[in-house]
């Protein structure tokens, strides 16, 4: 097609972010649910990662809210709905097939809400999401379009991994992936990074000790990465 | 009437749930506003297809090509010399009072003189097998995407039916549309203009953009500079648009020409169009030709412009505008269907048989006061089609929207949108009023 509007570039970026937010939230909640079986951990740690207050009567209420509550902007359901909202206006760019996997994910999540074994009923979502990404890879011919989605995806993943205190090795891997994607961005576009904030990220995520001590600054730098004030050319 | 093999139908029927599930998965939806709130609904699909024999289709095809060619001639004439009015074939009242007539389009000649590139012609088949034209839709007829995607899915769900019958493959619609758009292209990329996600036909806009490789755009991504239409790119550049398949109504297209309050239009688009720098599909101003009042005159147009006898019949129609017809309408009102010419989408349609004595009397007075506002038609005894309703096969009213595409040649898509009423007592098949749809099989033998 060779022509992308600002509106669509924004949608592509947020499609990547929300789809990844949905996926990582699901995985994180799955791990948390598992560790709560023997009460090794409570859900308070999870809330702390996002600076959220505990307003839940028990872990069941917490899990249900973070999985299914559309009013909770941190829930998996909310992220999936936003991913779909962005995807539905990008059909001609991402393809009907790719979009269908988001619809399937919505249907699976909706059915899981009624299930006695939520974790089991959420399992197919992993396949669905991998298929979605496979479809994106397969159907999008324009590298620029694909790259914007992947930038959104890696920014989101990195942000969540840092907040959820994932091991340095995983964070480092995602940061390298992000840098590779950023290098593919053509000059003069909104997804050309700010050199100032990229340098901050390089410094913090360059060593494990900096990562351990300055993760808050890393998420702040990530939030400013595409600020138009200082765009590299 | 074509005979089907029961077994193949039952295979399709048996898979109705699966097909609807697939349609759901692929997001085959339409939007509807109820009490000011937007709802997205899945368009109910019935697996029993409408089947049209090759012989029947050949005759329909010939009739539709003839009709659309005449309508395109009429549009050129009306926005130029108006011979048909001067020669007394159509009274000028019917032209200038029509809401669809746009004085702003006077003198504009679109590329290759084609105004209606995509025509949606609604037909019904009577019980005696005769096909009648119910309505011409020459502005922004919608619906082709539904049978298109349904066919893709029914071929998966009921392969045997396609193996054992000789059914014309309808999946070339996108190629046909692309060809048609290219023929109207004045130099640049192809774009489909949508009012946005909350439009009733948004699925169609985005699906056709995907299939034709066009850019799906909204007005704020477009601008006109030196009478050329451009797409504003995210890197601050611009790409010229050569043809715009617009899916918004004429009056909202350009706030500097039509409604100034339009927030979904493109300022100066009409100047770019008038200068011949962009093709608009379909051309603005086509509403004058698909006005329900003008419908009455289409057979006369065919004779006037083409010197041919119309192949397809109109439903018997009366114009209260003419004294003789008005008297007939007043006398037989309870047996006729009355249509308000300014309404669309199944609205403004009243069956005389549904009215009480008082209401009939009231309606007679309204018609007498505003005779130009209405047409009256004999109620055609439609051929009912079978549909599956809660596992039972029942008969329901159905129509057929045929799509005629005018490019280098005028071609009829060998398929169409068969819409049916889910209400056993209703003739209204529109999706906005709860109707469903079927695939339309055209047999190659």
List keywords for this structure.
heterodimer, A: 233 residues, mainly alpha, 2 domains, globular, disordered C terminus, B: 445 residues, alpha+beta, Dna Ligase, domain 1, eight-stranded mixed β-sheet, six-stranded mixed β-sheet
Detailed description of the structure:
The complex is a heterodimer of chains A (233) and B (445). Chain A is mainly alpha-helical and 233 residues long. Chain A is built from twelve helices and no strands. In chain A, 39% of the residues are buried. With 445 residues, chain B is α+β, with helices and mostly antiparallel strands. Chain B has two domains: 6-309 and 381-442, no CATH class; 316-378, Dna Ligase, domain 1 (2-Layer Sandwich), CATH 3.30.1490. Chain B has helices spanning 6-14, 16-25, 54-78, 83-86, 92-96, 145-157, 159-164, 173-184, 202-212, 250-253, 269-274, 292-295, 298-306, 323-332, 357-369, and strands at residues 29-34, 37-42, 45-52, 118-125, 131-137, 189-193, 215-217, 222-225, 228-232, 238-246, 279-281, 313-314, 317-318, 336-340, 349-351, 374-378, 385-389, 392-396, 398-406, 410-412, 417-420, 436-442. In chain B, the strands form five sheets. In chain B, strands 3, 4, 5, 12, 19, 20, 21 and 22 form an eight-stranded mixed sheet that branches. In chain B, a hairpin with a 2-residue loop joins strand 1 (29-34) and strand 2 (37-42). Chain B is globular, with a radius of gyration of 22 Å. The relative contact order of chain B is 0.18. The model of chain B has no long low-confidence stretch (mean pLDDT 91). Classes of the chains: A mainly alpha (233), B alpha+beta (445).
Largest sheet data of chain B: 8 strands, mixed
**What gyration radius of chain B follows from the Cα positions, in whole Å?**
22 Å
Taken as a percent bin, the fraction of beta residues of chain B is: 25-35%
Taking the alpha carbons of the first and last residues of chain A, their distance comes to 25 Å
